[in-house]
């Protein structure tokens, strides 16, 4: 073992001694390109130095970019903090503004409910009343007796004649209709100024509504703007009517709302019971390819049915019957051989659930009203409840109360002014709405006959305020103070108030015309009343005033 180790060490030592780089031989040669190697080393060194400078420059640029990013982040952070603070202040300002606006509206809406004395009322008269000479009680009494009281008897005779003829016409209509396929027509009802005894403008026109229902096994399912689904502002006051089978549960199953596919079947409804848009639905007066009742189709059907009914009974009467207005499909005119005529409106309606609210196919339009959203949207009329409310309140008022007299005088003045200066955005329905609001706000004793002048001023002041604010709310919609005796549907009481003057915001030219007409009416009021007033000695005016009421 030691001998082997010694041999290995000897071999290693011999190799080291004979290595040419450690102990070069005497005949070895030194490389001749030493200078070339040194030059390359210097070039390499210069290259490394330049590379080092480039890297240092890049590092400096990176550091500058990093600092710029950090600075930008700080600026963005500060901006966000400022924006958050600004958004908070903006939101707070908006909340304060909304609260102030709500308070202002509530305050203004409550002004007319003030039941203070007449002197307080006169203190809030607007600018339009400055310099206006208001007729005194004696002049108003004489005007009312001469111009308005004489029309009451004429209205009663006309109502009786029109109602009797309409009943006969509808009975004939039922006989010419197919009971298995056509709509079922019910008895007509009188609504509006002729049946509330305040119509003063001629020609007198009776408004009759005719409820109708679909044939079995179908029924109507209605939906209004306040039923829960969102309706745009332009469709407030409207609703839709869906024609369904009586055994079809449209609310309890989703098969009518979801496409199940050809290979799927609803377990609750068989294929035969599903009402689908088809020619059958069009025969039921629905809009094409829908289940929604079409007002235009209904009026076409009704006009054809009325024409057939008149042909059946025309031999019994000594006058002619015709449709009088193209833009009002239910307008009829009776023409006597003497040349005289009587106009009345016979309009089909659909009952809303089990109430006396009705969907009306066509409603008298004014320059203020917008076009219907579509022929499947039906306007809701509360005319039956309005008539009942007036009758109910009249029972609590003093004898010969002046509420109807005020409305008649105001309607007469506005009608005369429009005949002089042209139509305006105000209608008799707006004037009646003003009276309904004041009837609810004022105590019963304020409507005594001797307070005609004061209450007429109240109506003009209230109307002026509504025109100024462009706000006149529907009397029933959103009114939680409707008497329970009327049985008015609670869904409409809880709805948002409906502003009848909302179109004034959209139609500035109509609004300007309406305001100008109102101011002109105030200025001409005394002259218009004196024109129809019997001029008598002052000593007799008190007697006339007492007799007229």
From TrEMBL:
The source's superkingdom equals Eukaryota
Sample GO molecular function, one term: protein kinase inhibitor activity
User: Per its UniProt record, what InterPro entries does this chain match?
Assistant: ITPRIP-like, Mab-21_HhH/H2TH-like, MAB21L/cGLR
Coiled-coil residue windows: 38-72
Is Nucleus tagged as a keyword?
Answer: yes
Instruction: Fetch the Pfam families from UniProt.
Output: Mab-21_C (PF20266)
Which subcellular locations apply to this protein? Cell membrane; Nucleus outer membrane
Bilayer disposition of the protein: Single-pass type I membrane protein
Q: Where is the signal peptide?
A: 1-24
Sorted alphabetically, the keyword list is: Cell membrane, Coiled coil, Glycoprotein, Membrane, Nucleus, Signal, Transmembrane, Transmembrane helix
- Which SMART domains is this protein grouped with? Mab-21
All copies of the Mab-21-like HhH/H2TH-like domain together span: 404-477
One GO cellular component term: nuclear outer membrane
The family annotation for this protein states: Belongs to the ITPRIP family.
Show the PANTHER family listed in the entry: CELL FATE DETERMINING PROTEIN MAB21-RELATED, INOSITOL 1,4,5-TRISPHOSPHATE RECEPTOR-INTERACTING PROTEIN
Describe the task this protein carries out.
Answer: Enhances Ca(2+)-mediated inhibition of inositol 1,4,5-triphosphate receptor (ITPR) Ca(2+) release.
Q: What is this protein called?
A: Inositol 1,4,5-trisphosphate receptor-interacting protein
Annotated source species:
Uria aalge (Common mure)
Report which gene this protein is encoded by: Itprip
């Amino acid at each position: 073992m030691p001998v082997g180790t010694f041999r290995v060490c000897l071999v290693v030592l011999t190799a080291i001694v004979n290595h040419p780089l450690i102990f070069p031989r005497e005949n070895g040669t030194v490389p001749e390109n030493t200078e070339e190697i040194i030059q390359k080393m210097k070039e390499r060194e210069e290259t490394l130095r330049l590379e080092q400078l480039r890297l240092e420059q890049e590092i400096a640029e990176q550091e500058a970019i990093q600092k710029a990013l950090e600075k930008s982040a700080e600026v963005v952070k500060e901006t966000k903090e400022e924006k958050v603070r600004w958004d908070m202040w903006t939101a707070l300002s908006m909340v304060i503004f909304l609260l102030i606006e709500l308070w202002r509206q509530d305050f203004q809406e409550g002004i007319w409910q003030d039941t203070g004395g007449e002197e307080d009322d006169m203190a809030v008269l607007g600018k339009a009343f400055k310099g206006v000479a208001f007729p005194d009680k004696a002049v108003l009494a004489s005007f009312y007796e001469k111009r308005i009281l004489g029309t009451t008897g004429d209205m009663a005779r006309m109502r009786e004649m029109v109602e009797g003829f309409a009943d006969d016409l509808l009975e004939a209509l039922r006989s010419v209709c197919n009971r298995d396929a056509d709509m079922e027509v019910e008895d007509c009802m009188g609504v509006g100024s002729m049946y509330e005894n305040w119509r003063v403008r001629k020609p007198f026109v009776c408004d009759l509504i005719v409820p109708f229902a679909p044939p079995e096994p179908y029924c109507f399912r209605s939906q209004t703007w306040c039923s829960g689904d969102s309706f745009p502002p332009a469709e407030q006051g409207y609703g839709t009517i869906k024609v369904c089978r009586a055994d079809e549960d449209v609310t309890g199953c989703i098969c009518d709302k979801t496409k199940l596919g050809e290979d799927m079947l609803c377990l609750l409804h068989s294929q035969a019971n599903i009402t689908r848009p088809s020619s059958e639905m069009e025969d039921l007066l629905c809009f094409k390819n829908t289940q929604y009742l079409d007002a235009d189709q209904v009026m076409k059907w009704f006009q054809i049915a009325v024409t057939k009914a008149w042909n059946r009974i025309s031999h019994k009467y000594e006058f002619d019957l015709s449709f009088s207005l193209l833009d009002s499909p239910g307008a009829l005119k009776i023409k006597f051989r003497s040349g005289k005529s009587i106009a009345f409106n016979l309009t089909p309606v659909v009952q809303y659930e089990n109430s006396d609210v009705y969907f009306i196919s066509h409603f008298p339009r004014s320059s203020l009203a917008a076009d219907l959203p579509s022929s499947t949207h039906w306007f809701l009329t509360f005319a039956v409840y309005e008539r009942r409310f007036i009758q109910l309140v009249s029972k609590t008022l003093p004898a010969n109360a002046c509420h109807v007299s005020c409305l008649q005088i105001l309607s007469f003045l506005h009608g005369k002014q429009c005949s002089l200066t042209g139509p305006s955005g105000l209608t008799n329905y707006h004037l009646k709405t003003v009276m309904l609001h004041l009837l609810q706000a004022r105590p019963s004793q304020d409507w005594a006959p001797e307070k005609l002048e004061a209450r007429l001023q109240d109506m003009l002041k209230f109307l002026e305020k509504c025109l100024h604010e462009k706000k006149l709310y529907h009397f029933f919609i959103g009114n939680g103070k409707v008497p329970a005796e009327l049985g008015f549907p609670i869904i409409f009481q809880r709805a948002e108030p409906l502003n009848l003057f909302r179109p004034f915001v959209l139609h500035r030219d109509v609004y300007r015309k309406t305001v100008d007409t109102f101011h002109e009416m105030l200025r001409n009021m005394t002259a218009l009343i004196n024109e129809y007033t019997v001029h008598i000695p002052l000593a007799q005016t008190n007697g006339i005033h007492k007799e007229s009421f």
